[in-house]
Each structure stands twice: as C-alpha cells, then as structure tokens.
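1st attempt posting a full record on here, be nice pls
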Amino acid sequence: MLLIYGATGYTGRLIAEEAARAGLDFAVAGRDRSKVEALAERLGVPGRTFALDDPATVREELRGARVLLNVAGPFSATAERLIDACIAEGVHYLDTTAEFATFALAEERSAAAAEAGVMLVPGVGWDVVPSDAVAVHAAGRTKEPVALRVALKVTGGFSRGSVASSAGIADLIGLVRAGGQLVRKADTAPAAFDFGAGPEDCVPVPMGDLITAVHSTGLRDVEVFMRSDGAIPAPGAELPEGPTAAERLEGRYWALAEVTDADGTVVRSIIETPTGYTYTQLSAVEAARRVLAGQHSAGFRTPSSAFGRGFATSIADSKITDL
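the predicted structure (as tokens):
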C-alpha cells in the first residue's frame, strides 16, 4: 500500500486524485482530521490522521504501508521525522521536495536506509526529475564531462506550499559544487541561458541538483540557476491556494543542462514539460507505482538512478532536445 502524507494540500490533492485514476492501492494522510476524512470519503480510500510530534505514533501509522509519499511542505518540518520512521519500519520513502536541505538529509541517511533495505528518493516531482534526467543525458553526449550548469525556467503561479518551502533559499544563495565540495560562491550575478527564445538572465539558486547531479552524473562541479516569469511571493503573502486548472494547462516549464568537456567543448540539452504542478502530479504517482511494483533498491537514490534515465520523458508531453 502507498501512504500519501500531506494529501489534503494543493499538490497533495492533485497527486491523490491521480493515484485514484491510476488504480493504486493507497491511503491518504495528514494532520487535519476533517480534511483527511473528507478527501478519503471523496476518493473512496482509507484515511489516517496523525501529526509528526511523537516518533512512536508516526511509526505506528506507517505500519501496513510499503511506500510513503511525503507531500507535506515545508519539508524542513516533515522530512526528517518521516524518513527516520520509514527506515525504522522498512518503508520506502519518496517526496516532492525542492528544498536543498531535504536532499542533504536523505543523502546523510543513505547508509542507515541501505542497512534497513529502504530506498530514499526525494524530489520525485518537477524538482528534480526533469533536471536530473537532462543532466545525465547531456553528460552522456561528452567524452570526459567535467562541469555542469543547470538552468530552470518556470511559468505560471505558485501554490502556498511552494512559497513556504522557498523560505530557506535566500540563506543558501551562492551555494555551488566545486571539486565535489559544497562551497559558497562570492559571485552571485545572473547568467544568461537560451531556452529557445533568446538569452534570458537566470539567478543562481541552491536546488537539490547540487546533490542529485553529483550522484547521477559523477560530476564534481555543479551550479544551478533559475528564470521565473514573476518573482516568487514572500512567505506569508496573501495568495490563492495554487494555480488554476487553466494556468496548469497553459504553462510550460524547462530545464536546461550545459555540460563542459575536458577539451573545452560545451554541449547543451533541454527538457520541456508541462507546468511543475501537472508534472509532479504525474511523476510522483508513477514513481510510487514503480516502487510498489518492485522497482527499488536500498539507500539514497536520485530519480534517474532509481527509475532509469527515461523516467522523466515517460511523463506525458515531456521531451528532451539537444541544442
């Protein structure tokens, strides 16, 4: 059984609805009893209500599940307790985080998870499935890749949960991989990337690719940038719950990988996808389906190392193009 924690939030509901359409054996869970019960009744699935304050309670609520999909952001408040409970109970852990610290935590817990036979795959949504895949693809086009720059372009609105999860980004601006080490770069000036309509300035951001790309490609020099068609609202700002269905259908997202070879050659590849919320709805459920079907190993994994380099483009309306 799949347990979706945080299922009553904006992204959580989209994922739960997709899990129902996919015919998965799953239950919904969260902290708000009335919301959990209403969603469970609407989808015709079991519901579990629990907070994460007491580790023993969390472990008890996980019993009977084979896979946990954590959609409850900000993940800084949920991931550690759920990862530790999953390791203790032998439950595979997936989440939809975009928070750097959650990837670092899963990497840190890798040995304990491996010993328990548990797989940890943070970032099975738009962060980081497409960027992970296009980085692997672009690196494979070179003979001796030495450096990677990832640039993301997003359009459309943000959910309240996404805004809350972005709160810690400012504290990590300038973080890059250099020689395999995480360091702060003094120069945080924008860099220009062409997503298909001419060069656009992108700002450096501390995304999970600083961890996942190292594992997926073996590269030791990694930087990540982002271009948004609007500023991310400040946490606490008055916002609608999330983008409308029309906004989700109309928007597009891009992730570009620029890989430098030892001889100085630079190759670029780009993946274009539906908006992050639509993509996450599909990719998170597909990841869970695959793990339920037995596609798993033990320890920390990236989406491409867990599910193969073709996983990202198996999601509808997604394609990689070499530039």
